[in-house]
Amino acid sequence: MKTNYQQPISKKSLTVTAFALFSLFFGAGNLVLPPLLGFKSGDLWWLVTFGFCISGVLIPILGIMAHAKLQGTLFDFAKKVSPLFSVVYCYLIYAIAIALPSPRTASVTHEMAIQPFWDSSSLLTSLIYFMLVFVFAINRSKVLGLLGKLLTPGILIILLIMIATAVFTLDFNFMPSEMVQPFSSGILEGYQTFDAIGAVVVGAVIIISINIKEKSASFEEKRRLIGRAGLWAGIGLFLVYGGLILTGSLFGEFFDSEISRTALLRGISTKTLGQTANMLLSILVSLACFTTAVGIVTGTSDFIKGRFGNSIFAYRITAFLGCLLGVLVGQFDVGYIINVAVPSLMFIYPITIVLILLNVVPDKWGSPKVFKHVVWTTILFSIPDFLGSIGLGESISPYVNWIPLSQHQMGWVLPALIAFIISNLSNSAEILSTN
C-alpha cells in the first residue's frame, strides 16, 4: 500500500523564504503611501486598508505563486497571448520601472534625508544619487545585497515601534473621511507600490534561489514552501501596511490637511519616536531606496543586454540612459512623480493583474484562447480608465458610464471576468463536441 508522504518543510527554509518575499515587496519608497492614505481616510481607515492590501499585498503574493508554477521568466507570463505581445509587454514593464519607481527613490531620499537637514536642490541630490547608482550598476557590487539584508529588519523594527507607540498612546478619535470611494481608492493607491510589477519582474529571482538552496526538494515540496512562505510574507505586509494606515488615521487632527506624503511620515516618526529615531529612519529609508534603484537599473540593463545578444555595450548604455532619466525625473517631488505615474499604471496594472491570475489558475482554465480573450478584453476596457486619468474623464463619461465599476476606475474587472467565463465555456463546448 502506497502512502503520499510529504517531507516536512524546515523552519529555517520557511523563515528565510518568507523574509526574502517580504523584503522583495517591502520597498522603502512604498512607506510614504499608507500613512497619507490613512490620514485622508479617517474613520474609514479599515475599508481603505482592505482595498490597499488587495492590490499591494494579495496580487503580488499571487504573482510569486504564478512564478512558482511557471518556473520561468517574465516572458513566460504573457507568451500564451502571443510571443510578440509578451515581448512588447516586457519592454513596457521595464520602461515603466526605470522611468517612475526608480527616480521616485531619489525623490524620497531627498525629501526624507536631505531637504530637512541641508539647503540643497533636488537636482543636485538626484544627480549625485544616480551617479552612484550608475557606478554600482556597472560594477555589480555585492555590498548592496549584504546591506539590503540589514536595512529591511532595521526599518521594520523602527516602524513597528512607531505603529505600537501611536496605537497604544493615542485616543482612537478619528476625523471624518475625506474619501468618497475609500475601498476603490485603497486599491488604486496600491497600484503605486508597483509590487505586482515587482512580483512578475523579480519573482523569478526568488524561485531560482529556492531551486539552488532546495535541490533535493520535489516540485510539489517547493510549491508548498513558496505557498506557506507567501502566506507569512503576506500577513507581515498586511500588518505593516495596515498599521501605517491606522497610524496615519490616528494623526488626522495633528497635521495640516495639505501635508505631503514624506512630511507626514517624518512628522509621525518625530512625534512617536523623537528626532534621533526620525533621523535614523531617514538614513535607513534612503539606503534602502538606493538599493532598490540599483536593482531596477541593473535588472532593466540585464533585460536589454539579453535582447541584444548579451552585449556589454547594450548593458552600459541602458544603465547610463536609465540613470540619466532618473536624474531628470528624480528632481521632482514625490507627489508629482506619483501623479505622473497614474496613467501608465491605469493601463499596465490591470493587464499585469489578469496575467498573474490567469497564470495561477489551473491550466485547464488558462488555455491560450482564454489568455487572448481575457487580456485583450482587459486592454479594451482599461482605455476609458486611462483616458480618465489624463483628464478626459468628463468628455468620455457619457459613453462609458454604462460600464460597471467605471466610476471607481475599474471598468475592466467585470468584462474581464465575463471574458474568462465565456472563453472557458466555449472551450468546454468544443471538447464535448469533439467527443
Percentage beta strand = under 5%
How many structural domains can be distinguished in the coordinates? 2
Overall number of strands? 0
Shape-level CATH architecture of the largest domain: Orthogonal Bundle
Q: Which topology of the largest domain does CATH recognise?
A: Hydantoin permease
Mean of the pLDDT scores?
Answer: 85
Q: Identify the CATH homologous superfamily of the largest domain.
A: Hydantoin permease
User: What is the level 1 CATH name of the largest domain?
Assistant: Mainly Alpha
Principal-axes geometry comes out as globular
- Helix share, percent: over 70%
The major pleated sheet works out as: none
Strand-pairing-aware structural class: mainly alpha
**SSE pattern, N- to C-terminal:** HHHHHHHHHHHHHHHHH
What do you see in this structure?
The protein is an all-alpha fold and 435 residues long. The chain has 2 domains: 12-338, Hydantoin permease (Orthogonal Bundle), CATH 1.10.4160.10; 361-435, no CATH class. The chain has helices spanning 11-25, 33-41, 45-70, 74-78, 83-99, 101-114, 122-139, 143-169, 182-191, 195-213, 219-250, 261-273, 275-307, 312-330, 334-360, 368-400, 413-434. The radius of gyration is 22 Å and the shape is globular. It is a multi-pass membrane protein. The chain crosses the membrane at residues 12-32, 44-68, 80-100, 120-138, 150-170, 190-210, 231-251, 279-300, 312-330, 336-361, 373-392, 412-432. InterPro entries: Brnchd-chn_aa_trnsp_Livcs.
